[in-house]
Amino acid sequence: MARKMPREARWEAEAVFLEAAQLRPAPRSSPADLGHALFERGRFAEAAAALHEAIRLDPRSAALRHNLGVALDRQGKHGAAATAFREATRLEPDDVGAYLSLALSCRRRGLWSEEALAYADAARLRPTDADLHFELGRALSADGRFAQAAPAFREAVRLAPHRAETHLELGIALGRQGKHVEAEQHLREAIHLDPANVVAHANLALGLGRQGRHLEAEAAYHAAILLDPLNPRLHRGLGVTHFFLRDYAPAAAAFREAIRLRPDYVTAHSDLGELFNEQGRYADAEAAFRDAIRLYPDSAAAYRGLGSALFSQSRYADAEAAYREATRRNPDDPRSHFLLWDVLEKQGKYAEATAAYHGALAVKPDLAEAHARLGRALFRIGQFAEAVAAYREALRLNPDDNASRSGLERALEMQQVPRGRP
């Protein structure tokens, strides 16, 4: 969900930006003075040309490189600006402002890893600046490196413990690592410091749900919805929570509200379909999944759910087609291969079923259940030696599987029976 930054944090971020965007005092020369004057008048392209000339005359000036970067950045030439800022840091490696400028230029191009490196250098030079540690954490989080982001946010919290946004970001980074108990502490502190922070309430609800604390998650979602009642993701999250609590009527109402607020919300349509499947309302489930597929034809999950709804209506050929679409769109999901096997077996298509399980095993070769089911399918089409091998692999992976042990014994017996004997 989009994060609304509190006013205090916005001011801090703007202060970092302003420091980076300012021109530096540079050695006096006619081109340098001209560049500064043109910049002040908003004539950034001409300013950049004058600064290029100033750099030609004084190539060792970090300030001129920095000012050139600012002029290029104002023109939207962020790659060229970053090159100028990097050169400024090389010439004057202790200039925090140059690293800030480089970081912001990288952020504008979505180069999170390079942004993080620049903020790390800035934080090294100014270790007691909470803003720099915070921005470092944000860059690392944007790069998906949550384990590295958490220490940066922790340092920002240590330096400035009363900033809600820092506790929020630390809580999110911890939650993305599955550290939900520790994340909860920081999310609750963020809410204590800023009770209107809807993102903190939403992430608290999400973390509580992942801990199986669904009643508490329900309360957190209600608190978030009070703050942002038109947010479809919050209503969808509340619906999922009701689903886990088996409160099916409120779950359906929440999913429908999410869809009302955002009619193209594919996930909410699929959630509604899963709910109807769970309730045995298979025709309604079929309609919900078809809506999801209409909105997003490449949704493997929607095809899988549609297949289950059709299977439960004994429409096995239609279910087979849906499961095949699911496996085609996401061949790496063994669940769809399993479900395809079930419907093929139901139709007596055992040879095709073996292909489905070979597909599942190609994705996850250490899945004991897949080997066991493959053994059963091979047994039914008379491939007893292959069935023996499949059952043995199933037992190697799961020695306590008594069904596979019995299947192995039957397959071994059949290997001893001459072909043609009853």
Summarize the SSE layout with pairings.
Blueprint: H1 7-21, H2 30-40, H3 44-57, H4 62-74, H5 78-91, H6 96-108, H7 112-125, H8 130-142, H9 146-159, H10 164-176, H11 180-193, H12 198-210, H13 214-227, H14 232-244, H15 248-261, H16 266-279, H17 282-295, H18 300-312, H19 316-329, H20 334-346, H21 350-363, H22 368-380, H23 384-397, H24 402-416
Helix pairs in contact: 1-6, 2-3, 3-4, 4-5, 5-6, 6-7, 7-8, 8-9, 8-10, 9-10, 10-11, 10-12, 11-12, 12-13, 13-14, 14-15, 14-16, 15-16, 16-17, 16-18, 17-18, 18-19, 19-20, 20-21, 21-22, 22-23, 22-24, 23-24
Task: Describe what this molecule looks like in 3D.
This protein has 422 residues and is mostly helical. The chain has a domain at 1-160: Alpha Horseshoe (Serine Threonine Protein Phosphatase 5, Tetratricopeptide repeat). The protein is 77% helix and 0% strand. It is built from 24 helices and no strands.
Features:
Serine Threonine Protein Phosphatase 5, Tetratricopeptide repeat, about 0% strand, mainly alpha, about 425 residues
Instruction: Return the CATH topology of the domain at 1-160.
Output: Serine Threonine Protein Phosphatase 5, Tetratricopeptide repeat
Which spans of ≥5 residues are poorly predicted at pLDDT below 50? 4-14
Helix share bin: over 70%
Q: Which CATH first-tier class of the domain at 1-160 would you pick?
A: Mainly Alpha
